[in-house]
Amino acid sequence: MLSKRRRKMNRYVEIFLVALRLGFTSFGGPVAHLGYFREEYINRRKWLDEKSYADLIALCQFLPGPASSQVGISIGMVRGGILGGFLAWLGFTMPSVIALIVFALVVTNVGGVDAGWIHGLKLVAVAVVTQAILGMGKKLTPDRERITIAIVGAVATLAFPTAWGQIGIILAAAIIGYILYRNEEKEEMIVLPITFSKKLGIAAWVLFFGLLFSLPLLRNVFDSVAFAIFDIFYRVGSLVFGGGHVVLPMLERELVPAGFLSEESFLAGYGAAQGVPGPLFTLSGYIGAAIGSWPLALIAVAAIFLPSFLLLIGTLPFWNSIREMSFAQGALKGVNAVVVGILLAALYDPVFTSAVQTPADFAVVVIAFGLAQFWKVPAWLIVIGTAVAGAIISII
């Protein structure tokens, strides 16, 4: 009994420490995060197979909230239940939350956010995303039909660069995948070890919608800044599609006109959030601290991520059953192929366009890609190397 408990504890510690390392090194935004996750969780630790990982990405693309964070939480839940999901989230988000809270409390100027080493971290994101797309493409687009879906998906994503456009592209790919592959023999899927029940999943869905509709009403009853912040951040976390950059205008409309903080202070925090690893949703930590104090920052962070936990707890218990259905398998083949295309479009804009400005920048990307793809150099070493290279390029 003790041995079993110790093994479970060791697993929880491993989940947290691996996520923490990713939280310190995962620069470059949500698409880059998926590349870092794939390298760490799929290639190195074999916690999931490539197909299951792609299925989780597809699922999280449909859900509101920060898709890359939700993928990380999902992997934690598959590995260690709800507590495993929480530990994966805590490790991944804690470094940037602490950094942004300190930034707000110390009222540091944001001039260093545009430093050369930050530019170097943007360059490594190009290499990481390229490597991830190549690896996923080999497994998820093995025939001409799925390669075509990926290419058309990439073009459509660039033509309709909105969250709703992306959801429409995924739905169209699901329909095409079903039409093309509905008569194929059903594949045997690797069952994800989800340890919490469907009853708990239903309860999570009820709580998700209950909070979404009741918090604005209760806000009129409880005249409290903390309650108002919880309501605002929970609502934004529940309704935003498209990731961190979409959350910016939503939060700005909710907070600046209401006088919670100034436009200048809000934009300073957004700039600082670009210079830290991890998800952009940790901007909530800066905003809470800038409005009040570190306890208010923790309330804001908890509120904006809570919907993601409830949605995943509500969906994952049913995910194995959905994946095993023959019609769903055909649809998922199309969805997984188009996810490769969506990532390919994101590789160009915003990852490549925001990072590669000069031939020297492109040279750094090529070197970083070669070191990662062919020399198998650890990601953290490449991150350090490109940060140094970016600083050198800015000086020259």
UniProtKB/TrEMBL annotation:
Signal peptide: none annotated. The chain crosses the membrane at residues 12-36, 87-110, 116-135, 147-180, 200-218, 225-248, 296-319, 331-348, 379-395. InterPro entries: Chr_Tranpt_l_chain, Chromate_transpt. It is found in: Cell membrane. One of its GO terms (cellular component) is plasma membrane. Pfam families: Chromate_transp. One of its GO terms (molecular function) is chromate transmembrane transporter activity. Keywords: Cell membrane, Membrane, Transmembrane, Transmembrane helix. It comes from the Bacteria. It is a multi-pass membrane protein. Belongs to the chromate ion transporter (CHR) (TC 2.A.51) family. PANTHER family: CHROMATE ION TRANSPORTER (EUROFUNG) (PTHR33567:SF3). This is ChrA protein. It comes from Bacillus coahuilensis p1.1.43.
